Amino acid sequence: MKRFLDKTWAKAAAFVLTLVFGVLTVLGGVGTAALISYDVFLDDGAFARQSLYENRCYSAMDHADSFLRGNLANAGLLSDADGYDYSNIENSPTAVPGEESIPSFLKELSQDFSNEFTLDGFGCHLTVASDDTGEVYLENFALTYTDKPLYTAQSTRLYTLSDGSIYALTYTADLLQVETAPTYSYLLLSWLTEHTGLTIFLTALFALLALFFFCFLMASAGHWARHEGIHLTWLDKIPADVWLIVLLCTFFIGWEAFYYEWGRVFFCAALVPLVLLFLCAFAAQCKAGTVLRGALIGRIARFLWRIVRAIFRALLHTLARLPLVWKTALVGLVIAGAEFLLYINDFYRVRYGVFLVMKLIELLAVLYIAVSLRTLQKGGEKLARGDFSSPIDTRYLLWDFKRYGQELNDVQGGLEQAVQEQMKAEHLKTELITNVSHDIKTPLTSIVNYVDLLKRCNVEDEDAKKYISILDEKSQKMKKLIEDLVEASKASSGAVELHPTKIDLCEFAAQAVGEHEDELKEKNIEIVLNFHAQPVMIIADAQKTSRIVENLFSNLRKYALEGTRVYIDVNGGDNFGTLIFRNISKFPLNIAPEELTQRFVRGDASRSGEGSGLGLSIANDLCELQGGKFNIAIDGDLFKVSIAMPKAQ
Fold it and tell me: Looking at the whole model, is its pTM more than 0.70?
């Protein structure tokens, strides 16, 4: 079967045979319906035959009645109220009006009646008799003993005479089996009644054949010789909706044009081939997948959708580029305009519920905007505090609020990444300094020990003694620098073990001044210590705090101007005890205060002094590790350092 799918002659034959067997199936279905309506399958055709015989008998009696009324009317025996036009009846005998003249008049029509209603013409034996006496007035022919009626029917007809009286006549029709030419409907129904089984069998056979060839047409749609796959011809490319529009318009125009029954039947039959062509084209389009894509309505809808989408996108793009203030103003103007129009049309006065619903919607919108702004505000506050642990939840934010929330999350992510990278860099730098310091410390220890051994030797050469002294000084300086580097690395990384205790800051300051007063006097620097009589108790690690103060005195010894005073104040606040150092610098302080706490930064820009630039950095880190605050202030040549440590409760 597959080899015939792309054959043109096979498609043409299947098309014609589908139409032929389809018509035969319809005719068979009509015949079967007629048989069902006459209950042929219940009484073996008895009712159908009776209906056929009865119809012929009543048809003959109706013709006889018309014949008789026409003659009575022309004779003047019928009243005008009888309601029948008999102007076409001629050459009837005349009679005197009156009921008693009816029998004689009818007997005069005997010959005309016999000539009009012959056996060959009507196949019935007709008699007209009085309804009261039963006397037979008219008979078309006499029955013989061989005549056996198939069916007998009787009917009484009433006649309104010219004098106003009513006369009744009884018609009797005996249907005889004669060799006449009956009507086509009679012959067809008779044949169907006699061949019921054959009718059903042929109808089913024609239906199966029509279905088979129709399925072949549907299967072969789109398949053509010398074309791989589905190929659409110019008929197949006509959109399905265009086919439907043409068919529907043709149907309605033809239905109105052919107003009589058989004309409409023939018109519908002529329309069937077009419908079959449409089905073939539709099947090919279904196989090719172009039903919706190629439909005219679909193309128009897609074109309109593109226009609407382009306009909508342009509006959205324009609105998206507007600032939030302008968007808010635009929405407010729209709402105000709508409410103004409703107000001037007295809509709110009639529709209280609508007014309340609108106000409720406005309230919910304002609440949503407030909640969204609060969410963004809290996210911004966390970001300002350096809290990167919880980003802004943008799932319930819309429009610009969601976009702003995502931008804040992006900023938070960038800052968090930058902080992590900075911490990683600090960790690597600290680790590098520690490792290098340890690597340098081992050979330096050997140098220091050998220098110490050389100092103990009896060296008489003065130049050699001088060189040994220089080696000792520089090696000790390098040893101190390495120790400061290691300590600075530990302090900045937090790898310092603390043992906080209660310390009297006044006593601590006095002790530190006593330890370093002599060395400052050598620089002609006077120390002025100011503190209250009551002790100021702080919580701090004594050793680490001593290192902080020692670094500050070392800084004074190196950079304080000789011949000046150093003021040291001890103050006790609510939460912190503060130790303040103030002195005049011997070098110009052309540097920011926060830079002095960085590593290897010195107040001496020429770096000609003995400092390493680590003292203040170590002091700052140790102070912050203990929960304190280390602050530097510069006012011209005035250098001020304050150390605030938590007070003991």
Answer: no
